[in-house]
Amino acid sequence: MTPRITRPLVTALAVATLAGALAGCAPLIVGGAAVGTVLMATDRRSSGAQVDDEAIELRSAARLREALGDSVHVNVTSYNRQVLLTGEVPTAAARQQAEQIVARVDNVKGVVNELGVMANTTLGQRSSDTLITGKVRASLVDAQDLQANAFKVVTERSVVYLLGRVTQREADRATSIARQVNGVQKVVRIFELVSPEELRQLQAGTQPPAAAPQPAGATGGTPLPPAGAAR
């Protein structure tokens, strides 16, 4: 039986994450979904993929810092060796350079580059993003028909990114939930879709063959209207 994660735990971890961010936030951040990592009780990735994802995030962050310095704000999130880049860089050239650097890291299958060419966000905006992530995760926990820890949630400038190995039904359900959270401006899905049979294999502890990485929008990542615009 898969253990469920309670809403109070999600909320407490979100507050703890926010407190850490307020205490001292480095411009270059590893793993934009810290709350999702802490809450991981079970995982649909293989153990090898989980280890690779941790290494990818650390190596990418180190190389980005070396090349671009601490003036940029880049979040590196790897899920099943697919990397999501979010944050802000000062120029289009820096945006392209960041993607090229990460693409050359060992075991990276693909890069979804969502970096904005703009000034770095304020501490207030990042704090708001942390709270939105916590609220989205808490809402996923409340959904009795979803395994909340199958999803990784990243929020940047009020845009929520959803990652995971999920069925089409789970993808659509999680998207619907996320778009209803106050403060969410848009939801982008970066899912690796699996069939119901493949999901049963995952839940039984048998890893099916990994699907090809899906670029942003390939599994329905068309920007959604702001929460509250269409209830």
- The level of helicity is 40-55%
The portion of residues forming beta strands comes to 15-25%
**pLDDT averaged residue by residue:** 82
What Rg, in angstroms, do the CA atoms define? 17 Å
Instruction: Tell me the strand order in the biggest sheet.
Output: 1-2-3-4
- In CATH, the topology of one domain is named Helix Hairpins
What is the CATH architecture annotation of one domain?
Answer: Orthogonal Bundle
Query: Which descriptor suits the 3D outline?
Result: globular
User: Between the first and last Cα atoms, what is the distance in angstroms?
Assistant: 34 Å
- Which runs of at least 5 residues are low in confidence (pLDDT < 50)? 15-26, 33-41, 215-231
Tally of helical segments: 7
Tell me the series of helices and strands, N- to C-terminal.
Answer: HEHHEEHEHEEHEH
